[in-house]
Amino acid sequence: MTNNDPLVMLVNNYLQSIYGSYYEPIPRDADPHSYFLSKYDFVRVLDRKFVDSMFPSVLNSHLPCPFFKYLSKENILQGESVQLGDFIGPFSCGFATWACPIDSFQINKHNPASLGRNITCVPDYTNVEITHVCCDSPQIGSWVSVVKGSGIYYNVGKSLASFNKVDAAIKLGNSPRALAQSFPDFSWNGWGPTSWSKEKEYIANTFHISSLEELLIAVASGERNNTAIDFISDCPVLDELNYSSARAQGYDSIQMCSAGYQGGYWSFEIQDTRSSDILDLVDNYIITVSGGKKCNTLYPMQKELLCQNISCPTPPIPTPISTPPISTPPISTPRHNYLPILLILITVLTLSLLYIYV
């Protein structure tokens, strides 16, 4: 296979659309599909021809969302999960941790055999490619997900490395016992919205875990090597505690490199503790391959992160509805008839002359 091969050209054109002049052409004689899968885990459907050529099973399926795999609570409790290499997405069909208002999907690189822990955190002050979609507030900071292939970069700063939210809370100095006491009815979304009081009997019978403290240790460590337990780490109840603890200890961000998510998959997510909101994050901590502050939030309701150099379409400007002009008949200027006045004047003048001569 040469660089003139149509598929190689498609891959190079796609990468150039994402990275501009900084893209690296695939090596000569490399298989474009294997090369792409080995380096990238995020694909935007910028070019349907590219996706159809690289991933024909994606677009040729008759299913409404052919490559979005979302598992039920029952599936998760049975130990199922998104498998290595599965497609997660697209943006328009379900929950997504990326942002571009066109179809996009992620190639799962988290290995369920190791509870996603084959993905590791990065050193302090590393630039990582990310995307963003939601869930920021002054109480919990801003959130981004690490995806190779977005062309949008974020610097982690001084960062706490952890597996998930529970692991982060413990590493920030909150013991499992203290967490159990602070959140006696600990809640999570990883099995669908539920809590300790609702599930403790099932957990005791199924996993032989009798206390919330013991459960939190298992979630943080992954020691049970059980996917259902690991997805309990989708627990927003800890977001505010982790945010305030990390800020107090001088961290710029919290990395959670194998955070379990409702739906049966893992994500490498980062909680930024420096920014006051998404606009602050964009202005100060985001750059693109072309350098500088090139991102903005054109979709404020969804807080999607769009960057000018990655071929994301800008939102259409609504065309104002034009009101047709009201048809009014032309105003005609009335013509004045001076003849009667002239006849009166002539009559008066004639009578006056007759009077004089008579």
Description:
This protein has 358 residues and is α+β, with helices and mostly antiparallel strands. It has a domain at 67-310. It contains 13 helices and 14 strands. It has helices at residues 6-19, 32-39, 48-54, 56-59, 73-77, 165-171, 176-182, 196-207, 212-221, 227-230, 239-248, 278-285, 339-357, and strands at 42-44, 87-88, 104-107, 127-131, 142-146, 152-155, 159-162, 187-188, 194-195, 253-261, 265-272, 286-288, 295-299, 304-307. The strands form 4 sheets. Strands 7-10-11-5-4-6-12 form a 7-stranded mixed sheet. α1 (6-19) packs across α3 (48-54), α6 (165-171) crosses α9 and α7 packs across α9 (212-221). The longest helix has 19 residues, at 339-357. The termini are far apart. Mean pLDDT is 78; it is low at 62-66, 92-100, 291-304 and 308-335.
The largest sheet has its strands arranged as 7-10-11-5-4-6-12
The outline comes out as: elongated
Quaternary organisation: single chain
> How would a crystallographer describe the biggest sheet?
7 strands, mixed
Labels describing this entry:
358 residues; alpha+beta; 3-stranded antiparallel sheet; 13 helices
